[in-house]
Amino acid sequence: MLSTRFIGWLRRYEKWFGIAAVILMVIGLYTGLVTSSADYYQGEVVRIMYVHVPFAQTAMFAYSTLFFCSIWYLWKRDPIVDNAAHAAAGIALFFTAGGLLTGSIWGKPTWNTWWTWDPRLTSFAILFLTLVGYLMLRTFLDDKEKRATFGAILAIIGFIDLPIVHFSVEWWRSLHQPLSVSTRGVSIAADMALPLSLMSIGFTLLFTYMLMVRTQMLYLEYLLEAKQGRLMSEERL
Amino acid sequence: MQFFSVIRWIAWKDLLSEYRNRENISSMFFFAINVILIFSFSFSLDPETIKEIMPGIIWVAFGFTAIIGLGKSFLVEVNNDCMEYFQMLPIPKGAIYLGKFLGNFLFMLSVEIVLFPLFVLFFNLDILDQFLKLLLISTVATIGLSALGTLFSALTVQIRAREVMFPILLLPLSVPIFIGAVEATRGILSGDAFALYRHWIELLVVFDVIFVVVSFWIFEFILDY
Amino acid sequence: MATAIRGIELSKSFQHFQVLQSVSIEIASGECYALFGPNGAGKTTLLRIFATLHRPSAGRFEIMGFDGNRERAKIRAAIFLIGHGSYLYDDLSVKENIQFAIGIRGWNPTDLEIKKALDQVGIGRFSKLRSRYLSAGMKKRLSIAKALLVRPKVLIMDEAYAALDELGVAMVNEFIRNFTKEGGTVLMSSHDRAKTAEVAHRVGVLNRSVLNEMSVEEMSAADAIF
Amino acid sequence: MRSVCEIGLKYRILPEGDPLKGLYLRWAVLLSLFGVIGLLGWGRYNREVRAQEPKALLKISSGSDLRVIGRIEGGSLVRGSEGKPFEFTLSGEGEQVSVNFMGEDQDTLRELKTIVVIGSWDGENRHFKAKEIALIPNYDFITWAYLTSLIPLAFFIFRMERKVALLYIMIKEEKAYQRENLS
Known about the structure:
The complex is a heterotetramer.
Chain A: H1 4-35, H2 49-76, H3 79-111, H4 119-140, H5 144-176, H6 190-236
Helix pairs in contact in A: 1-6, 2-3, 2-5, 2-6, 3-4, 3-5, 3-6, 4-5
Chain C: E1 3-14, E2 17-28, E3 32-36, H1 43-50, E4 58-63, E5 66-67, H2 72-78, E6 79-82, H3 94-103, H4 111-120, H5 136-150, E7 154-157, H6 166-181, E8 185-189, H7 193-197, E9 202-207, E10 210-215, H8 216-221
Parallel strand pairs in C: 3-8, 3-9, 6-7, 7-8
Antiparallel strand pairs in C: 1-2, 1-4, 4-5, 9-10
Helix pairs in contact in C: 3-5, 4-5
Chain D: H1 4-10, H2 19-49, H3 54-59, E1 62-72, E2 86-92, E3 95-101, E4 114-122, E5 127-134, H4 139-174
Helix pairs in contact in D: 2-4
């Protein structure tokens, strides 16, 4: 069973992840915005990629974390894993919204539309709704164990559903929309690959850092409430 | 064989209660009729347009039916704390899920079968010769919908804001079912060859298998959190 | 005598509110143990932990030698809870409700057995009535009829005499006496000292999440037990 | 299974000093760091991406490596082939300049399209010799994408860290870690 030792560990090591993330992101942003060249077809707009792709990747990464934490929770029933899952869900929701937003802004100049029913966009929209549902479900449940378990169930079901959504939309789109608007990625030149990989790794580290901070936050909230609750119980003695 | 007897007992109980009070089926049925009526007033009824929008109308009506019917399916278990009784039973909990799923599936399917003639009536559709194919698609789509709906009904029935949470959870995750069902229905109504929409039915079957199995496995945690 | 129920340092908190604090309890087979305590003392919570409805926040328990965290299915096969919930379906008749509740446990009693059990708890003539029309006392009797048919090794009764009339109380006491004589264990909570004294072998007072044990004589002699 | 609280007592994880002060200091450094990158990006935009209108071009006598934005006038485009340059008139804000371009045919080179030409300007002949053609610089999309993603991200993390710091302070004040409350 993971324990508060784990929280102490988070507290001790979180800063290294944060620092590494900031260094990589600073270099990544510098190379991305200042030194790298523009894309042959898209021009300068391709620079949105350096923030959009890491956002989307991090969202997927955070959702996978939520999925694995959920399975782990159902297996071991360790409350701190539930805190981690809850933290991952909040972060995943944030990055999903950011990914959708930056993707939309990128889509306007490249495909001349804010939104298209692309499989990836659709699965991200579904992911967004699932995460909102997850967090809402948690707020509506009072019992701590029930909240953790039901949340975990929803997260697992949603994670399994996501590839099916992606697949079905792909089929559906091939029927209804001409594939003239290609939403596949741009071919990557060498001086684009550097900022992109820097930002990707940086965001992964940043996510780890955020997960560590947020898990602590949720755990401490619980600890504080438990403390106050115990004071309440002791008043009766 | 206790496993199958549990499924049988649960389905027996649900069907008998439903036969006695008819709450669920009648509310599903009349709700769906209202949806059909509103649609028939809001669209012009020339035959070409109807063919284009009909699959959507059919599955919107069935979707609402699912929200009304499946959402309430675990209410009867909560009313007299029967969920607790299930929790204390020394039996595999997945069997309880399958029993509830079976009942829900039968309710949904029977409502859908009754509704098809009404579509013919209100929209002048000529689907009677395709009825068996429509039935096949309804069956595979309804299995998936009931599998997810039964699970989410058990998940949301004990919480505040149950009526809101159930569709919020069910609808996004059942997007593949609706896409598959609408496309296959469209294929039938426009008289396409079976091979042209067969892959949608296969998709629905895959979805059904995955979600029945996963829900069956995961249901234990809902009862025994 | 073998130990039927053993709770070791059980604690439970709801929403950070500690209901039970390190409660240890040991009940032998064939014993009837009665829990007393003011409202909100944690009696129901303790019973529900033993009925595997709640997981303890800390501590562990065993029932018939089975571990409370790992062997819950085996515990569930051995226990039966008569609690606040009636576990009835409003649109099924009394008899159908019993058929369902027992049948789903894997045993189909004959009509005769059901009739006998219903007669024993005094609601035989209502067997065709839909359970939505039953009164609280009749629902309680129906639960006892289920217990008669299930024949568990451990019977857990929350508020054993609640909603029952005098005949019902006598019937319950008679039932408990027979049940313990045959080796069954009863863990019950109650508010009626006089009636409990007729059947209980030992008594525990749960007050402010702490358990104090005493004998039946001590309880009957005391002016107030909490 | 021991309660989380109980374990919390065993491992002292409370921070030393005032966690809020360190937080604000850290964020001041971070914001200035990212501000510098923003400024560098802005500088690069002015240097390499921003394009002039033809009107501004007419005011200078000559120059090379200039970037001019404008619309290709309808009917003015003469397509070049083997060795012959493309010729067209670029217009914007009522002024026009004639442009020739040596290079390959491109999708963007069509009448009534807005493009950016890069090359040298001959003020006396009012003639622009383009060596490269670029897309319209839509830097506002890029700016929006970065601002709408990174600013909320910073805000999100800042609030999280601040909450953690505050929680540590509150727990310290509540003395949640002292043994005396546990029997």
